[in-house]
Amino acid sequence: MLENGTRRALIEVEATGGVKRDKSFPADDSLFLVELPPASDVGDGKKGVSEALQGAHIVGAENSSQAALVFSDRSFLMSKLNASVCPSFHYELTRHYLDFSRLYHILSSSTYEGYGEECEEKSAKRHTFEELCVVMQSSRSEMEAALKKVEGFAVNEDSNKLTVVSEELMAEAFDEILAVVSANDWDLDAIELPKLLKSVRGDISTEKGVIAHCLTVNSKDGIDADQVCQLDVAKVASFKARKLLSKKNWERKEFLAKWNAEMPHQCTSYTPPESLLAPLCLSAFDAKVGDDILSFFPSSSLPVEPSQRFQRLFKEREQWKEANISPFLEDICKENENCGSLLLKYAVCTDGVWIEKPPLA
């Protein structure tokens, strides 16, 4: 591996200690001349190019000729430069950010609905962690963070292949967790997983992996080495709100009183903030009752593909204030995106509100 200044490097694939090539990228070239992004993007900005590239590997793309150079914590797309003026092995690197909506789409194609619902067809659609890294051209640390964001679930009985748990099963599990915690008057800051697994009842008691997953997802920092976790009170409140909102439309004052009353008795000093309702419902003032009416409209039920998400949102309302639409976009933003950048891409702002972007002529 040779360096030429700070912006270019000649990579020798499969060289000792250097860049490796994944089997998903069966190219004939063993040398790659790459145009590098800023030093801060490669490694930590303190390493030399050669040192930063140690341990990286080139991963191919499914149904695409574009490859990625993947490090332990980030990845870069390799765009081949114009062959008429550059060597055929000449590439430019650009930072590649994991697409959360695509990852969720892959995982949800084989949703886990319970051990009794498992089948070979579902298993065939699933991937192991390593396979997902290749499919998504992602580093391990990026994939770990993404799976946490989309609540990925490893099915023990299916070689730890990854999927997501159905909303119905997750709700059943969390209901039982909270019932056990309340009945035993356990401290929400110190839930012991072994005790919990022994105490759950009903059909969900056989889904120990789902119980542990649900506890992890709804905790502040996961389950520690001592098998203890701290429940996130805000996530408990969101769950309780979701259950209530799914039953009927509510007047705001009536809902807030009922919501507060539904919280576990261990949370008497906690008043759920109304901001938690933003991605769960729509609010519209009703002059007849003199109050806002809350209707169930959870972001989790909306399409994960951005253009489809916007189509659904603008079908619901022709215009949105940014503060009202943003909660329904946060879950589909890539690492390098925010709600503002998505709005600029898929909508138009006029007179202080966002409307659907007209189709190109």
TrEMBL record:
Is Kinase included in the keywords of this UniProt record? no
Its family? Belongs to the DCC1 family.
Q: What is this protein called?
A: Sister chromatid cohesion protein DCC1
Which terms under GO biological process does the entry name? DNA replication; maintenance of mitotic sister chromatid cohesion
Q: Does the keyword ATP-binding apply?
A: no
Lineage of this protein's species? Eukaryota, Sar, Stramenopiles, Ochrophyta, Bolidophyceae
Superkingdom assignment: Eukaryota
Q: Which GO terms describe its cellular component?
A: chromatin; chromosome, centromeric region; Ctf18 RFC-like complex
Annotated source species = Triparma retinervis
Keyword set for this entry? DNA replication
- Give the Pfam families listed for this entry: Dcc1
